[in-house]
Design goal:
The complex is a heterodimer of chains A (123) and B (825). Chain A is mainly α and 123 residues long. Chain A contains five helices and no strands. The relative contact order of chain A is 0.18. The chains are: A mainly alpha (123), B alpha+beta (825).
């Protein structure tokens, strides 16, 4: 019981840390957009979890970050640009699809990075 | 052992990063780097501007001599108040960059043949064309000349350049304009040369049509033989209403150009039909409808007793727009109008003393000379009886993902050898052709506008435009003191008849230009009795003008007739009347062509559908309004009749030939119904009459019209489908299918992707009353609500009142929303 609480605390902390670290390195425009791959790997090394949980925390951390940022920006812009980009990309002008695509790309890469990190610890 | 899963997940992660970090092929183009593009902290999301963005700012710039205040109104038009002229241009450069950086980069890339560098080998043919035409060569000459002879202009362009670069320097990577992210490249420093390249592009856009037309006319003449050519492409225009009223007397010309002996045979190729066609057309040609209207009415015709000036340049309709509105106020002048992102000062506008506008002169200032090289090294060419040395100009074109391409251009006394063994259209083993173009000469165009911005009266205006060489323009002016005038100004060649219409022999000086027409002899009229001056790209004068003006196909006839007819009839004119006229859709061509056509249509012999279409045309009110269907019937029928009449003469050619202009068939129909060209030369033993050809045309048109009817596209605006295209031509970034009437030959000259690119009306009352707008928006960012904010208003024919006032008054104006302060360090 105790372990499970501390495990879920660990999971939650990892998710938040992953989002926070990714946001922090993202502020520096000169760093590559995929810098969060490294922060996620580091976090997974520092906070050991089972690979599946590491993966999920990476997915949620980056996914939530990218979703929230895109969602907020898009609302403040009243979908002007997202509608155009969703026609440039084959998304039939749907800003919802574009936000989902953004979220999925970030989440997938975030998860894979964390997964890789979790294996370093165990390797 | 977790090594294997580690390696597997590391490889997949790295592979995904790699894939999302490169441009993938997608059809003929490439995707953006998707991971980067979608990243909310790096990619396009950063360009999604808040609807209620606060544009207030306070900036420090070492380059400034004093502080500058910019007030932005609710349309995002900046009103710049500076203590020093150079500071004003610094800030203009900064604001151009802040709102239009990508477009400035892209347009100068096109002009300098550097598209391949960002878009790859697909764009090589465009790049090679512009390099070989001498675009960079001309810009370099202008730069060298200004740097050595004109310190004030150098300081002006340097200040503008510093302003652009001040913006670029503070720009962080995540804030790059949207298109840089889409196309995956970064802006580079602005330079004065880029300003001159941009102006070079305007010369190309407005006079470069000869680069294609001279070749096409030569091919058409060679294909048809001179006699038939001369009949089909006559320079006679019966219904011409020139810029300078008919009957105006001209002084004895300073230059009498002499036609070379033997040129009838050696140059015009009279009695020399069906020569083998040697030269092919160039891949690029500016829109032939690049034109414009401008006019000014004097106080005798207005309600207020003060002049009103109107100007609407017709150019390609693009997003971001070619134009950017600005007010510039310094102790030396206060000017408002449309500026070019890429160049300092105002191009079409007004100041507190006068207003000015421009239309294209359309005169031919680009010629081809045929060369004979001694051998394939192209180091010597035959000229005046000896072998002369060429010099080699090397242009290196960088190509994305590929090796550099080097253009070695042989430079001759005529200019660059544009076409040679290395640069030909594949369909032909072509001639060697050098291009001679007035745009290659050092330009003083920046100074012309600099002075026009400060002009106080007609003398100042004449002094300013005297510096204007290329592209030749009709400069209209109206002053607060009550003068109106128009002058066709530029470096125009004193030509003998037909000189330069076709490729000329370049083997000696006999076909060279014999002089530039002195400015004092360029067509000019001031305060004429009729109370107005106007131009709409028609021929500037009647046939008594002592110089050859060029082929009549360069001068559209009908808008000019429409403008003059309306202005003649008007009195007690107000600015609102001028708005109605500038957006008028009346079709004067159809007014003349419809009855001429009906003379040849035997209605009772038509099919049922054709009867219906012809009656749609005859019941039409002659206005090209948005919802009319009669204009669509008229247009399709007229085009099909032209195809029936000319098609056979031009059909056998393997390369595109020039179709005769519409006025040629119309005037022929009015003159003579036994027009021999009407005969279809493909049918042996039978001579078709014009009537038979018209009937064929009507039936052909009916098939097209019935098809359009089924698609529900008979309404004029649906048929015409006017669009304002993003410079990349990506539809999602463009405004498609606008609800607007107008068209070719109409004052509201809105065709598919072309038309009134800036509409301006200036009433020269004590406090100037001005209106204007362009089909775009002040912010070039597709993610901004100001990206296309004027488009719907423009399509609806509405106008904004332009705010032109002194600082304190503007500061307090209800439309003023933001303040950008520039402080000197």
């Amino acid at each position: 019981m105790k372990t499970s609480v501390s495990n879920s605390m660990k999971f939650l902390v990892t998710v938040l840390l992953s989002a926070l670290a990714a946001y922090a390195v993202g502020i520096y425009g000169n760093l590559p957009w995929w810098s969060f791959v490294f922060t996620n790997i580091l976090i997974a090394v520092a906070i050991p979890q089972k690979p599946i949980y590491a993966f999920l925390s990476g997915v949620l951390g980056i996914g939530l970050l990218w979703f929230s940022l895109a969602f907020i920006i898009d609302n403040q812009n009243q979908h002007i640009l997202s509608t155009k980009v969703a026609n440039v990309l084959p998304l039939h002008g749907s800003f919802v699809s574009l936000i989902i695509l953004t979220t999925v790309v970030g989440a997938l890469l975030g998860g894979l990075a964390a997964l890789t990190g979790s294996y370093i610890r165990k390797a | 052992m977790r090594l294997m899963p580690f390696l597997a997940s590391a490889v997949i992660t790295a592979g995904l990063v790699f894939t999302l970090n490169i441009q993938l092929k997608s059809g003929s183009s490439k995707t953006p780097r998707l991971g980067y593009f979608l990243s909310p902290q790096h990619g396009f999301w950063k360009n999604a501007e808040k609807i209620n963005t606060d544009f207030n700012a306070s900036l420090v710039a070492n380059e400034l001599k004093g502080d500058v205040d910019v007030y932005m109104d609710d349309r995002l038009v900046p009103h710049i108040y500076a203590e020093h002229d150079e500071d004003a241009y610094f800030v203009q450069g900064y604001l151009h960059a802040k709102f239009r950086l990508w477009q400035m980069d892209f347009q100068t890339r096109v002009a300098s043949g550097r598209l391949s560098e960002i878009a790859g080998a697909d764009k090589l043919s465009i790049d090679r064309f512009f390099r070989r035409l001498g675009m960079v060569y001309g810009a370099e000459k202008t730069e060298a000349s200004i740097n050595t002879t004109n310190p004030v202009m150098k300081a002006t362009v340097d200040a503008y350049t510093a302003g652009v670069n001040a913006y670029i320097k503070q720009l962080s990577p995540e804030d790059l304009p949207f298109e840089f992210k889409l196309m995956n490249y970064a802006p580079e420093e602005w330079t004065p040369k880029k300003t001159y390249l941009f102006l070079m592009f305007m010369s190309y856009d407005l006079t470069g049509r000869s680069a294609a037309a001279d070749l096409q006319l030569t091919n058409t003449r060679d294909y048809l033989g001179y006699d038939l050519f001369d009949k089909l492409y006559t320079n006679q225009q019966d219904s011409l209403d020139p810029i300078i009223p008919k009957g105006t007397a001209y002084s004895v010309p300073a230059i009498t150009p002499l036609k070379p002996v033997g040129s009838d045979l050696a140059y015009l190729h009279k009695q020399d039909p069906n020569l083998a066609i040697k030269t092919s057309v160039s891949p690029e040609a500016p829109n032939k409808n690049n034109g414009s209207n401008n006019w000014a009415v004097s106080g005798t015709k207005t309600k207020s007793g003060r002049p009103i000036l109107c100007s609407d340049p017709h150019l390609g309709l693009n997003l971001p727009s070619l134009w950017y509105e600005v007010q510039i106020t310094t102790p030396t002048h206060s000017t408002y109008g449309a500026s070019f992102p890429g160049s300092p000062a105002v191009i079409i506008g007004f100041n507190d003393s006068l207003a000015w506008g421009v239309t294209n002169a359309g005169r031919d200032v680009l010629d081809y000379y045929e060369l004979k090289f001694k051998d394939s090294t192209q180091k010597e060419y035959w000229f005046n009886g000896t072998w002369q040395a060429t010099s080699n100009r090397q242009e290196i074109i960088k190509v994305k993902d590929s090796a550099d391409v080097v253009e070695n251009i042989a430079m001759t006394n005529w200019g660059p050898a544009m076409f040679d063994a290395h640069y030909q259209n594949p369909q032909s083993k072509g001639r060697n052709l050098a291009v001679k173009w007035t745009a290659h000469d050092a330009s003083t165009g920046v100074e012309a506008f600099y002075k026009l911005n400060r002009a106080k009266n007609i003398d100042d205006y004449l002094e300013a435009i005297a510096l204007w060489k290329c592209p030749g323009q009709n400069f209209v002016v109206a002053t607060k003191s009550g003068d109106i005038a128009i002058k066709q100004q530029g470096n125009f060649i004193a030509r003998w008849d037909h000189q330069g219409d076709f490729i000329m022999p370049g083997f000696d000086t006999s076909y060279d230009w014999q002089g530039i027409i002195p400015m004092s002899e360029n067509p000019f009229i001031k305060n004429p009795e009729r109370g107005f001056v106007s131009s709409a790209n028609q021929k500037p004068t009647d046939a008594t003008y002592p110089y050859y003006l060029g082929t009549a196909s360069s001068f559209p006839l009908y808008r000019g007739i429409s403008v003059n007819k309306q202005l003649n009839a008007m009195t007690q004119i107000t600015a609102q009347d001028m708005q109605a006229m500038q957006t008028s859709n009346y079709n004067v061509f159809a007014e003349m062509a419809r009855p001429a056509l009906m003379k040849f249509i035997k209605v009772d012999k038509l099919s049922t559908d054709a009867k219906r279409m012809v009656s749609s045309m005859t019941n039409w009110n002659l206005y090209n309004n948005e919802h009319e269907t009669g204009i669509t019937a008229f247009k399709v029928i007229w085009d099909s009749v032209e195809d029936a009449v000319w098609g056979d003469e031009l059909a056998g050619s393997s390369i595109p030939l020039t179709k005769p202009e519409s006025y040629i068939l119309l005037e022929q129909m009015k003159r003579d119904s036994n027009f021999s060209v009407a005969d279809d030369i493909r049918t042996k033993n039978k001579i078709e009459t014009l009537q038979e050809q018209v009937m064929v045309g009507v039936e052909n048109a009916t098939k097209k019209l019935v098809a359009l009817e089924k698609e529900n596209k008979l309404e004029w605006s649906l048929y015409k489908a006017t669009r304002v295209l993003h410079l990349t031509k990506i539809p999602a970034l463009s405004r498609m299918n606008l609800p607007i009437g107008g068209g070719v030959n109409i004052i509201n000259a809105t065709s598919e992707n072309h038309g009134p690119s800036w509409r301006m009306i200036v009433h020269l009352t004590d406090e100037i009353e001005a209106y204007g707008l362009y089909p775009g928006g002040q912010n070039g960012n597709p993610g901004s609500p100001y990206y296309d904010s004027f488009v719907d208003y423009w399509a609806a024919g509405k106008y904004y009142r332009l705010l032109f006032m002194a600082k304190e008054k503007l500061k307090a104006n209800e439309h003023t929303k933001w303040h950008i302060q520039f402080k000197t360090a």
